[in-house]
Each structure stands twice: as C-alpha cells, then as structure tokens.
Amino acid sequence: MKQGYHSNWFQVERAFIATHSDKIVGSVKVESSSGISILRGMYISSNFQCEKLGTKLIKFIEPILNKTVSYCMPFSHLERFYAQIGYRKVSLNTYPEYLRHRYVTYENDGYIIIPMVRDIAK
After folding, report:
1. Angstrom distance (rounded) from CA 88 to CA 26
2. What is the pLDDT of residues 25-75, one digit of tens each?
3. Which of 77, 82, 83, 76 is nearest to 114 (CA)?
4. Terminus-to-terminus CA distance in the chain, angstroms?
5. What is the CATH number of domain 13-118?
6. 101's torsion region: left (phi>0), alpha (psi -120 to 50) or beta?
C-alpha cells in the first residue's frame, strides 16, 4: 500500500505505521543521514484525521527525533501541527544544501511547503 507518499523509499528511512482492524490507517517516515533526521512525510487515512492519530503517531516517533537536529518540509497549513513537538519555521538558507535542493524541487512541483527545523532535545 502506497499510503499517499509521492516519493520512493530509501535505505536510510524508517517507517512507522498505525493500524486498525489489520489495515494501515497511518504512517510516517523518518530519514536519518549525515548526522541529521528528516521527517519525510506523514499519511493519515481520511477516516482517522479527526481522531488525533497524527498527533499520537508524531509523539510516538519523538524519541527518535530527539537524537539529532531534525528537518521537515510540511505543507504550509501544517505549521502548528509540527510545532507541537518543537519544529519551528526557519529560513531556507539554514538548511543543508542537499535539503535546499530537495525543497526547491518540491516547490517547482507545485507544493506549498515551509522549511522547519527541530533542535536536539535537552
């Protein structure tokens, strides 16, 4: 099941899923490389989007994100959602170059996204 992702999966990514009645109803993937983490995306089935499943899933992976600086490029309307675990909007200039390139590619594909970062938890 593709789970709404628009990109391929890579060896440096870990997937976390939520199930209900043996069906995948939510997923999130985290990429770890070059000493940083990248929250690559989250998908929640439309039947579960008002059930706080996304919040539960993101809180579940928070310990993984606590180990490194973490970046994400969510759709702009999700800024408050990701802020609940410490992501903050930043200038694209603060991103590593390869992530800036990825960001620009997403924008060129028509996505309205924002650059966000989460510092190492203390």
Report:
1. 23
2. 998 889 888 889 999 888 888 888 878 888 888 888 888 888 899 999 999
3. 76
4. 37
5. 3.40.630.30
6. alpha
